[in-house]
Write a structure and sequence with these properties.
Elements (H helix, E strand, L loop, with lengths): L10 H23 L11 H25 L15 H18 L9 H18 L6 H14 L4 H25 L9 H6 L2 H36 L6 H13 L34 H14 L59 H4 L5 H7 L1
Helix pairs in contact: 2-3, 3-4, 3-5, 4-8, 5-6, 6-8
Amino acid sequence: MASRTSPPRSSKSTSRTSTSSRSSKGTTKSTSKAPAKSAPQGPSASSRLLHAVVNAWAGLGHVVGAGVRRIGTVRTDMAPEERRDGGALVWLVLAVLIAAVEWWNLRGVDATFISMPASWVHAVVGGTFGFMALVLPVFCLFFAWRAFRHPTEVQANNRIAIGLMALTVAGSGIAHIAGGQPQLNQGFEAIWRAGGFVGFLAADPLSALVTHWGALAVLAVLAFLSLLVMTATPIGQIGPRLREGYNKLMGQSDPRSTDVSDPEHDRSYLDPARPEKKRGKRQTRAERRREKAQLDATTVTKPSSAPWSTRPSDAKPLKVPRAPESSTFPTATPLRPVPRRRRLGCGERPGPGHRGHPQRATGRQAPHQVSDRR
C-alpha cells in the first residue's frame, strides 16, 4: 500500500523567507545602533561672564597704560602685542588698596561694608609683613610703573622683582628686631606691630644663632645687596654711580672728553670761519653769489674723526675754485715735421736745406726752421 507523502517546499520560498528575516534583523540593529544627535551647545553663562570681565579689565589696563606712558619720556611707539597692561594694572590696584588700608585707616570707618573688608586686608598684609606693610604700596607702585613703561625688558623686571622681595624680607626682619623680638605666646597683635610673620621667620632663628646684633648686621647687608641687585650696580662701580646720580640730581653735565679719537669729541674748531650775515638790510643776488664763491674758495677737508683715522669714506673732497670763463690761456702752435735730409748724389749741388748752400753761409735760415722755433 503506497503511503502519501507531503510535497517538498520550494527553495525559492525558503530563500525569500531567510532574506526577509535578515533584512528585518539588519533594520532593527541599525535603528538600535544609530545614536541620537544632540544639538550643539554654546558657551555657558559663567564662561561668557568671565570672558566679559577679562576683556573689560584688559581695556581698562590699556587706557591707564596709555596715560602712564605719556608721563615724562613719551613711549607711545610700543606695539600692542608687547604690552602687559593687565598685569601692571593688578600691581597698581594692589598699591592703591594697601595704601588706603594702611595709610588712610579705612578700618576705622563707621560703614561696616568698608571697615570689614579693610580689616581683612590689614590682617593679610600687616600680619604677613608687619611694619613693612607701610612701605609695600611704594614697592607695588614702582613695579606697576615699570611694567607699564618697560614690559619687554623681562630680565630687568625679574631682577627688580627679586631685589624688591629681598628688601621686603630684610626690612621685616629688621622691624622684628627693632620691635623687641615678640614671641608667639605674646599674641598675634605684637607680631603684627613688629615685623609680621615674615620678620619673625627671618630674624628669630638668625638671632638665636648669632645674637640679635649679628642678625641685624646680616639683614642690613642683605638690604644693601638687594639695592645693588635692583640697580644692576657692581660693587666696584658704587662710587662712579653715586657721582653720576649726584650730577644728574644737581643738573651738572659730565666734563667734555679731551680724547681726539673719541667720535663724540667736538671738532667745531676745524670748521672755516664764515662771515656774519648782515641783518640790517637784505642781501642782493650779487652779494649772495660773491659770498658763495668766497666760501667755495676757502672750503677745506673736514675729517669726521681723528687725523690718523683709516676711514677714507669719511673725508670730504677738496673743492678747487673754478677759473673765470673770460680768462684765456696762450695755445701752442702745432709743429710741422722736419723733412729728412737726402744724401747728395754724384754731380748734385746742395739745396737750401743743406750745409753747403750759400744761404746757410750768410746766416739766413729756411722757412720751416723759423716756424719750428716759434
